[in-house]
Amino acid sequence: MIFTSIKVAAVLSAAAIHAVAATVIPRQAACSALPASVPTPSVSYLPDPFTNVAGQKVTTLDQWNCRQQELSQLFQKMELGAYPPKPSSVTASISGSTLTINVSDGGKSISFTVSISYPSGSGPFPAIIAYEGGSLPKPSGVAIITYSNSNMAQQTDTSSRGKGLFYNLYGSSHSAGALLAWAWGVDRIIDALELVPAAKIDPKRVGVTGCSRNGKGALVAGAFVQRIALTLPQESGSGGDASWRISDSIGTSTQTASEIIGENVWFSTLFNPFVSRIPTLPFDHHELAALVAPRPLLAIENTDYVWLGPLSSYGAMTAARWAGIAIVRFRVISRRIWMLDSLEEFAAKFERGWRELANGNSDFSVVKCGVDGYGVGYEYQCGGDADECAGAGLCE
Question: Fold for domain 2-84+124-196+203-391?
Fold first, then answer.
């Protein structure tokens, strides 16, 4: 596996963030609306996150806040579908370890449950919402909230379009694909945690994780649910932390956009016109990661499965890390760091970075520094100890 730590949050000491909450930079009110017709020139390299659709450079934090709103709208308009506003009513109750969530909007209602696995102690606990239970090691002192996201939006195959609780509420023709519908469900889980203190979960210290297709969902949830404190997508691959552009041009058996829409309903049908002309998309998935900023994101990939596109993920998340550093320092990087290397140069960098981080060992274990630091998080070591993790930039 490759463990790519994406620092899109401020680097703070462990002591300072022992009780870290989801830190959201206030949105600037006076942001320009997305134009009805968005320019879609063909751009083969990764688009610059710090240039908006009008071609203007982003040079201040307020401008970046507006750029994040713009990117969110672009993803909704061209890939993921519309994210509904908060529903008119959310109620919740807890019985044992089962949290029941009731949602009403537009004269319709749905109800769903999540199960909570508690650590020892009295709480309130930090927690990780785990799509379909997740597959990462469980950290001590952290509750696990099992979210059956496939009930919220089905994902059997392309026949699943418009099926699930989300669509029972908003209609089978709603533009949101499954990934965004799942994220909406995460939002409602956090609503419920805020409403029910008896659940013994601190709603300001909630992370999200998922693996493979559910890893794609975890990343989208981190991007769209501002109350998520830590985002942990595992092996999300194409459509997750990988770049559509790199996956298209990489020259290996990696899933592409044109293939993925024929497999399942993770994306909106609004994405279909772009899958055969990816360079005209005015964004890529390094900018999906940028929507998580300034909150922490740890992307985990698997180099044993070329189909997932680990090389593509490495490229996109490296670009996202640079974006995070720029945001944290309240400045932007104007150099063209988004231009792709040649495939040979890129592959060499990938191998070198992986060997340095993994030390040639694909096994991993939880390192305590992450759990102590965030109270909700993971850090990983690959063939070394916590000091080596720190040397690789994982436990700063």
Answer: Rossmann fold (3.40.50)
